[in-house]
Structure formats: C-alpha cells, structure tokens
Design a protein that fits this description.
- By secondary structure, the chain is mainly alpha-helical.
- It is 69% helix and 0% strand.
- Helix 1 packs antiparallel against helix 4, helix 3 runs parallel beside helix 5 and helix 4 packs antiparallel against helix 5.
Length: 152
C-alpha cells in the first residue's frame, strides 16, 4: 500500500503541475512574447517550423508572427501530450504494469526540448524527473543524467 500512496501523490503532483501550466498559459495568451529561436537547435525534431530572420515588411512581419504563434502552439500541444503520457504511466503503475523504458526515454527528450524553448520550467522538469526516479529505480542513472542536462 505505501507504493500506491506514492503513485497517487505523484499523479496528483503531475495533475496540479499541468493545471498550473494551463492557467499560466491562459494568463499569458494575450501577451505571447516572441522567443528568439535563432539560438535554439531543434533541427533534429521533426515537424517544427524552422526559424527565419526578422522580416522587414509589415506583411512579412505578420506572417513571421503567425509562424511564431503556430510554433508556440505546437510546443504547448507537445507539452500536453507529455503530461498525458506521464499520467498514463502513473495509472499503469498503480495497476502494477511497468512502462516501456524506451517510451520514457523519448518523453525525457521531448521534455528537454520543451525546457529549451521555455514551455516547461527547469524546476518543473526536475520535479517530474525526481518523481520518475522514485517510481522507476531501474532508470536512475539515465534520470540523473537528464536532470543535469536540463539544468545546464
């Protein structure tokens, strides 16, 4: 039973984190800041719009802003999918099923990319990884390395 309590606490933490992010996103929706994507290297992730230089004309500027907004929405959708996957892992663990470790590794990569573009905060990502360390001790080394990568 103590493991079930930990899992349920983890599920509650993940759900509250997701709710906090959703509320933060709604608050910031009116004033979405343009992120300078030129310093980001997300070329290895498919489906992401590649950054362009600043357009000079008003029409090009509007198109650029639309692309930035579309890219931000894609990142937010990726974050939401990530949180759903984490919730599924918690649910499966509460039923005694172990998650596919390759899927967890893929989720960690997605989370790291979302931290780079500031869709997920470093403390929130660290908390998620620490939760995974508690429920997946067989991945402790990879999870510890992941914490170091996101804190850089």
């Amino acid at each position: 039973m103590p493991n079930n309590k930990r899992i349920m606490i983890g599920v509650v933490i993940i759900l509250f984190s997701g709710l906090a992010l959703l509320l933060d996103w709604i608050k910031d929706e009116k004033e979405i800041a343009t992120v300078e994507y030129s310093s980001l290297s997300l070329n290895e992730q498919p489906g992401i719009i590649q950054p362009e230089s600043r357009p000079s004309s008003p029409t090009a500027s509007l198109e650029h802003e639309q692309k930035v907004l579309q890219q931000r929405q894609q990142f937010i959708q990726q974050r939401d999918v990530l949180y759903m996957q984490l919730a599924n892992i918690s649910n499966h663990l509460s039923q005694g099923k172990k998650p596919d470790l390759r899927e967890v590794s893929s989720m960690l990569e997605t989370q790291r990319q979302l931290v780079k573009v500031k869709v997920i905060s470093v403390p929130e990502a660290s908390a998620t990884i620490q939760f995974l360390q508690k429920i997946l001790p067989e991945m402790e080394i990879e999870l510890a390395r992941e914490i170091k990568l996101i804190e850089q």
